Amino acid sequence: MESQLVDPFQRAIRYLRVSVTDRCDFRCVYCMSEKMTFLPKKELLTLEELDRLCSAFVRLGVEKLRITGGEPLVRRDIMTFFRSMSRHIESGALREITITTNGSQLERFADDLYAAGVRRINVSLDTLDGEKFARVTRWGRLPQVMRGLDAAQKAGLKVKLNAVALKDFNDDELLTLTHFCAERGMDLTWIEVMPMGDIGNEDRLGQYWSLNDVRSQLARHYTLTDLPDDTGGPARYVRLEETGQRIGFITPLSHNFCESCNRVRVTCTGEIYTCLGQEGHSDLRAPLRSSEADATLEDAIRAAIALKPKGHDFDYSRQTVDGRVSRHMSHTGG
Ligand code: SAM
Ligand code: SF4
PANTHER family from the xrefs (predicted)? Predict the structure, then answer.
């Protein structure tokens, strides 16, 4: 289907990421402060509203939907939403529905996700050391996530691991994480830490481990072949010739990927952010609630896309955190 959503820079919007909750059962140090205040329930879009919203985007040409959060699998009754969205997979309108999760609830939900048409998932895991895992997630426990990974693979879901690259934290686990993923047939993507949200006392620059360094360390042990970008997203991929696995690098800080950006994000309260790195956003909840017909909503979506900025302004190059945005990653969904 031709996309009806083309932004002022001629980028067709095909990819929607939706945060279904701002809550989480972890408190990762780079993502949340220990004492987070969450939104009152009435602020959140209901599951029916989320369905209407996502379906409107699908009608307008979105082909890929990623469900995120907060932790999407802690939203009450979220499987009702997944089951309902599966009609768009069955009709062929949606090519893929996928999820980014911390893995804590996968043991419970992996089979249901597969049954709802989900085939690939991203699981965030920064370390294979139980003590370090508890430290970085504050509330998480590694064995629970490991059981979740087992359940996901057993259910037939293809798993990609996402690890945030953190200096003096997991820089000694580059090879262990690579081996772990190779053994389990999983791709691995490294993410540079981004300056988002007030997270307490953590030192953002102290956390920053450049992916240029990750890449050159990998190149000492493996033969890296660059792969063409087929995602339109911020990840660049290489193949490790020795294992065949794909390793991704999400480098919003050291490389600019905005020119091929085909995505927008919607928060759990129905705000649309057309750029992860900018404060500008529009409200879709009021148009959603103002009328049971979807014409007003579709107009609001088109109007928001017409304001999509050219790119973000994150920059660490002057040794200060420029371009910082005040909201947490869990608000917009990573
Ligand atoms: N709770 C789910 C999870 O952890 O996968 C989904 C939401 S989480 C906000 C999405 C991704 O954002 C995770 O991979 C997480 O590691 C990443 N993330 C959170 N805060 C970040 C930050 N400040 N910089 C870079 N990545 C971040
Ligand atoms: Fe929760 Fe994901 Fe943020 Fe960790 S990164 S606190 S798991 S939302």
Answer: MOLYBDENUM COFACTOR BIOSYNTHESIS PROTEIN 1, MOLYBDOPTERIN COFACTOR SYNTHESIS PROTEIN A
- As a whole number of angstroms, the distance between CA 145 and CA 122 comes to 12
CA 100 to ligand 2: nearest atom: 2
Q: How far is CA 205 from CA 177, 198, 209, 251, 284, in A?
A: 23, 14, 9, 15, 35
Domain boundaries, position 236: 15-332
pLDDT tens, position by position, 29-80: 999 998 999 999 999 999 999 999 999 999 999 999 999 999 999 999 999 9
Q: Is the CB of 273 under 6 A from ligand 1?
A: no
Q: From ligand 1's centre to the CA of 299, what distance in Å?
A: 31
DSSP string, 95-134: SEEEEEE-STTHHHHHHHHHHTT--EEEEE---S-HHHHH
Instruction: Quickly state the pLDDT bin for 278 (edges 50, 70, 90).
Output: confident
Whether 2 maps to a domain, the answer reads no
**Does residue 1 form part of some domain?**
no
Q: What percent of the chain has pLDDT over 90?
A: 72
Which of 23, 31, 193 best tests ligand 2's pocket when mutated (most atoms within 8 Å of CB)?
31
CATH of the domain at 291: 3.20.20.70
**Which of ligand 1's atoms lies nearest the C-alpha of 71?**
1
10 inside domain: no
Query: Annotated binding residue at 181?
Result: no
Whether 101 is in the pocket of ligand 1, judged by its Cβ within 6 Å, is yes
